[in-house]
Amino acid sequence: MSDILAISLAVVLTAAFAAAYLGVVVWAIGDAQKRGQSGCLFLFLFWLFGPFAALVWLIVRPSTTVEQRPHDDYSNAEDALAAASRLDQLGEWDKAIALYESAAHRWPEHKDYAFECQKRVKAKLSPD
To answer: Is pTM, for the whole model, over 0.90?
Structure first.
């Protein structure tokens, strides 16, 4: 009976460790994307440093996320529209709409594109 208990405990502890390990990887990839970096960057760090990659990521990650950057901080339309697209991909739809609107007002030559993107994001917000 004690062998079964030991094996059960080992299975539970292994599953808990694997879940925690996977949770850290998922968090770090999401955090990298919110900070305008590729999730592949963290996977590369994970390949180099193993489980210590999360600590390395906490040290080297950018200090601001995409959504924390003020709209006036973008110096050109391409950067602003790319950031709005990233916000859309991250599911930050209200922030994406606001940034598309700001880009349309600051750079009128991109107004049609920004409003079309805004329309697509708004469609995601409204239930069918």
So the answer is: no
